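anyone seen this seq b4? input:
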Amino acid sequence: MANKNITDLPGGTFAAGHKFEMFNTAANQNQSVTIPAQTVQTQMTGLTAGISTQGNTLGTTGLVSNQLLLVGGTNITLSQSVNGNSATLTFIGAGQSLQTQMTGLTAGISTFGNTAGTTGLVSNQLILVGGTNITLSQSINGNSATLSIIAATQSVQTQMTGLTAGMSTQGNTAGTTGLVSNQLVIVGGTNISLSQSVNGNSATLTINGATAAGAAPTISFWENMDLDGTAGAVLGSQVITYDTVAFFPLRREGVFPGNMTPATVAMLFTLSGSTATMSQAFSSSLFIGIYTFNASTLSLLNSVVTTWGSGADNANLSTIRAGGRWLTIHSSLWSAAPAFSQGNYWIGTLIRSSSRSDQTAGFYGQGPWQFNSPLSGTIGISQVNATTVGYLPFFGRMSVSSASLPASIGSADLNKQVVLGSNIPLLRFNNLIASY
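predicted toks r here
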């Protein structure tokens, strides 16, 4: 078709690529016009697309024509491959872990059993934590996991948490009564010994009582002399040797007869002199030590020191100390309460004085059996006047002056001859009456 104005074009439908020849009057020349091929977009003008209200949808629903753009959303990736007039569109979801695949699972703890904390169920994630005496162990194999719950190893004591033990108010009991759980410790008391034999997880406990002999009596008043009025039972005075430690057995025959913690211990003294001399300032001290036998020596168990006197001259001093007088020592003054039981004891004494003004000073006591001449020793051994041979074990005096009682002493450290004719001091233990 040639030399046509555009208004002169014939009507109808023409195929793509049809060519028209027209005269352009404005340009005063002929021009050709070709009908172009249609794109996929203009060819699909009859297509409508969009989203419906079904399934997992969001946003505005409905259909549109002309154009539909696809956009990747959360955890969705779009991939397109174009080949000529065709395209391949791939939808790719995010890689899912085991945790996100289990979004339909809910877990937690109920109010049943041994539980603590917040009860109820949760979704998406449940974290297990080992608590007291619980250890968690996990082994992962690909998308599966094996979880082991391990309890602490139980000892015999912890396995017996259901056991309660104690003592009741029945029988011979003392202390707090009632039951306890978890642990019961058994301790041997007075005259009771415990013996235990352990075999694996079992134990045999033996409770041993005291020997069937009668219990030792509790004593309220006691003295170390036999003053029954017979010959030899009369007390005599013994001149005091100052600054010299003397030792003697508390009881010459046998053990102390019972149990006693004396409130007071008293010694009987005699002091004399003129009023003038006894009125001068002075200070005197008596040391008493209780000793027990240990292998071959005496060891100090308890001790006390008491002091009397005046720091200035006083005419009344003679009236408060002259004559026969008890020197009483209270139990609170001892290094520990003087407790005695059925056993062997020895006494050590020391008297010291500064500016002493007594013309005569001594203590009352009783001498053990002895003859009036020094011992020469033991038959068959060449000894003469042996100072270490005496009448009673540990009855003698230290050979050197001392300012205090020794912590221990051996028998050979005592001079046994200087006590020839000496008295053992009278001691009275008293819990019965304050004065007599």
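The radius of gyration is 59 Å. The CA atoms of residues 69 and 254 lie 121 Å apart. kinda curious what u guys think
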